[in-house]
Amino acid sequence: MPFTFKLILFGDGAVGKTTLAHRYVTGSFKEDTLITIGVEFHVKSISIDGENVDLQLWDLGGEERFRFILPAYALGAQGGVFLYDITSPLSLSHMGEWLAVLRGQAHDVPVIMAGTKADLDTRRKVFTEEAAEMGGKYGIPNIIEVSSKTGQNVDLLFETISRMMIEQITKNDKKVINPNIEIIDNINPKHSIFHDSI
């Protein structure tokens, strides 16, 4: 049975969420992107280890003035990607605030960290060790550095979080009949979704 996942992309403005989503969905790099007001929505169908997965990518606007509307869009999420810019320590420092937005609506969903703009390594100001320390503080051990410009690790990022979501939903769907028998319940309810242009 195919999986349908609502995946939230979140983080400060200018970390490259929209560019990353565009790169992943279209395979091309779009340098000039407009500011995301509220949320942008993308869909991509992929195959993960023989499982069909429909990824609904919700790109949450990073500007602080839009943040009050974001909890409504995070409702029903089954996974999250926190994005920070490897050239901007400030973007990493806001991780706790962003996680509060997601966790307020989706408490126990898998989250992965993505360090964007990996092609700008010579301008790096956030090292992997620092990001790992921050992630450990919030119980998020997985970090993948990506570049929307070159495509570095973009597919790997979404394949990894998809596997994490499959594992999570499979774990939640297990029903123990007795200590010796486990039955996997393959029911995977699809979420009704909507997208408002704000």
Question: Any overview of this molecule?
Answer:
- With 198 residues, this protein is an alpha/beta fold.
- It has one domain: P-loop containing nucleotide triphosphate hydrolases (Rossmann fold), CATH 3.40.50.
- It contains 6 helices and 8 strands; from the N terminus they run βαββαβααβαβαββ.
- It has a 6-stranded mixed sheet, sandwiched between helices. The chain has a two-stranded antiparallel ribbon with strand order 7-8.
- Helix 5 links the parallel strand 5 and strand 6.
- The chain is globular and about 45 Å long.
- The C terminus is likely disordered.
Keywords:
198 residues; Rossmann fold; 6-stranded mixed beta sheet; two-stranded antiparallel ribbon; 30% helix; 27% strand; globular; disordered C terminus
Instruction: Bin the helical content.
Output: 25-40%
- The total tally of domains equals 1
Strand coverage percent: 25-35%
The CATH class label is: Alpha Beta
Number of strands: 8
CATH topology title: Rossmann fold
| C-alpha geometry | globular
**Average pLDDT for all residues:** 82
CATH superfamily: P-loop containing nucleotide triphosphate hydrolases
**How many angstroms separate the termini?**
34 Å
> What is the SS-derived class?
alpha/beta
Summarize the structure.
The chain is α/β, with parallel strands linked by helices.
Could you outline the blueprint of secondary structure elements for this entry?
Layout: E1 3-10, H1 17-26, E2 39-48, E3 51-60, H2 70-74, E4 79-85, H3 89-93, H4 95-103, E5 111-116, H5 128-137, E6 143-145, H6 154-173, E7 174-178, E8 181-184
Parallel strand pairs: 1-3, 1-4, 4-5, 5-6
Antiparallel strand pairs: 2-3, 7-8
